[in-house]
Amino acid sequence: MTVPDPGSIANFNRIADRYDRHPGQLGCRRADPQVLDAAGDRQPRTVLDVGCGTGRLLAQVAQRWPRAALIGADPAAEMVRFAQTKLPAATLVVAGAESLPLPTGSVDLVLSTTSFGHWRDQLAGLREIRRVLHPQGRFVLAEHTPPPDWLRPVLRLLGELPNHHREPRVRAMFAEAGLRTVQTGRARGGLLVAVAEPA
């Protein structure tokens, strides 16, 4: 599904220096261990975080799998700049999910937490993730579910309404992109966590 960008990239560039301290990140931080656990007990050689922001999750990946090559992609250049200060050994690129500058089948584990709702073209991004995943690779997505109807006008007034989906729609989009849903569940912080592998 293609959605207009309501200023997400400009906004994230503007708040990059304080993003990690934002109260809205509390739920995401609580969910990080569950996202990593959902990756399974395999030892990935290459881990990609799509929508890596300031590199918070990748820093935890480095602790859990110290031998893994770390790659982060985010369309907000300032977020990537801050991530690079935390993760000097990682490969960090300014890129959206829809156009990942990586070889086909080159990534063992792809993670994405709370960025899916901001992707310009979610189906194209999922297809791109399917392309870069190794045939035995795994994709873990964590994202908020849609807000209640009463809250939507408030979010619009604040300038942004991310494109969130309920579990059946996420599963359907995975299938359309060539991904097989392995499991779905809820994580702390009110997030939907969906795990998929190449179909």
TrEMBL record:
Q: Show the CDD domains listed in the entry.
A: AdoMet_MTases (cd02440)
What region holds the Methyltransferase type domain? 48-141
Q: Name one GO biological process term.
A: methylation
Print the keywords alphabetically. Answer: Methyltransferase, Transferase
Give the molecular function GO annotations.
methyltransferase activity
- The answer to whether keyword Lipid biosynthesis applies is no
Q: Which domain of life is it from?
A: Bacteria
User: Which PANTHER family does this chain map to?
Assistant: 2-METHOXY-6-POLYPRENYL-1,4-BENZOQUINOL METHYLASE, MITOCHONDRIAL, METHYLTRANSFERASE
What is the name of this protein? Methyltransferase domain-containing protein
- Say which species the protein is native to: Micromonospora echinofusca
